[in-house]
Design brief:
Elements: E1 4-8, H1 19-26, E2 33-37, E3 52-58, H2 61-67, E4 74-82, E5 85-93, E6 99-103, E7 106-111, E8 115-120, E9 126-132, E10 139-146, E11 153-155, E12 160-161, H3 168-171, E13 176-177, H4 179-182, E14 192-195, E15 200-204, H5 211-215, E16 228-229, H6 236-239, E17 243-247, E18 253-259, E19 270-276
Parallel strand pairs: 4-8
Antiparallel strand pairs: 1-8, 2-9, 3-5, 4-5, 6-7, 6-9, 10-19, 11-12, 11-13, 13-14, 14-16, 15-17, 17-18, 18-19
Length: about 280
């Protein structure tokens, strides 16, 4: 598993029962929390989060565990080796809800109220994402779209087609461009809906994409040069990667899937997508 040497659940006690379980169910769902783990610096939160705080950075795991002794909170310990020196970053997450951890696009574990230790690979940068295991994927938007006729430019976040030449605001927001208009269509391989304004896609080759999985993929997995290969069943899209992770120009993650026409016949390029909420939505 890239970016991960080992993951050890140090304590797996269930977060109480009876009233405690009912409290957890009604507690506000946890929006995704991202922790960046660079190979040459200690783990860091790239943005402020209301329910998570950095406790400190320690030279030994024993010292870190002493600081994470409160049994009424969830603690994440990230163990790193930087220039031959051990560093343990401790984060306190104030929630009683069960959490899910993904790292570099791979599921690591679920944790409940207590502690978990992650040991990061010192040779690569990694991204760790914490999501709510009790809540369904927090959907922001979704639709099926067809590039046809005058509908050439599409903004996934707002769910609308538009004309960038007539609307400068839309020009800065558009995510996908119809393959023939973008010059990425081929009579041999079909269409490739082009990405714009920083929107990116990443291959997902196993199972159903998740918010934690997509948002924890490393930067090297994302591509802004091509996304949807289109209309013929023998091409790379249908053969290898029927589903993509997508990251929109507004920074939302989601899934993007090619669909055939309703009657099963080949027709205009159809895409079905779902976007998940980001913090602040």
């Amino acid at each position: 598993m890239a970016g991960l040497v080992a993951s050890v659940v140090t304590v797996t006690a269930v977060a109480g029962c009876g009233d405690d379980e009912r409290m957890a169910a009604f507690e506000e769902a946890v929006m995704p929390i991202v922790v960046e783990i660079a190979k040459e610096s200690v783990a860091a939160l790239p943005a402020p989060y209301r329910i998570v705080a950095e406790v400190g950075i320690y030279a030994t795991e024993e010292a870190a565990r002493e600081q994470a002794a409160d049994q009424d909170a969830t603690y994440l310990l990230i163990n790193q080796t930087i220039d031959g020196t051990q560093r343990v970053s401790v984060f306190r997450i104030d929630t009683t809800r069960k959490l899910r951890i993904d790292m570099d696009g791979r599921f690591v574990t679920e944790i409940e109220q207590n502690r978990i230790t992650i040991t990061a690979d010192p040779t690569v940068d990694s991204t760790l994402v914490i999501t709510d295991a009790l809540d369904s994927e927090p959907v922001y938007a979704g639709d099926r779209l067809v590039f046809d006729g005058d509908d050439l430019h599409y903004d996934l976040d707002t769910g609308r087609f538009g004309d960038p030449e007539q609307d400068p605001e839309f020009a800065a927001a558009v995510d996908l461009v119809e393959p023939r208009f973008a010059g990425t269509w081929s009579s041999l391989t079909g269409g490739q809906a082009a990405l714009r304004n920083g929107a990116q896609a990443a291959d997902w080759d196993e199972g159903t994409p998740t918010l934690g999985g997509c948002s924890s993929l490393p930067d090297s997995a994302w591509n802004d040069e091509e996304v949807v290969q289109g209309m013929f069943s023998g091409n790379r899209w249908r053969r290898l990667f029927p589903v993509y992770c997508i990251r929109t120009s507004d920074g939302r993650y989601g899934t993007l899937t090619q669909r055939t026409s309703v009657d099963g016949e080949e027709g205009p390029l159809q895409l079905e997508y779902v976007l998940w909420k980001k913090p602040g939505d």
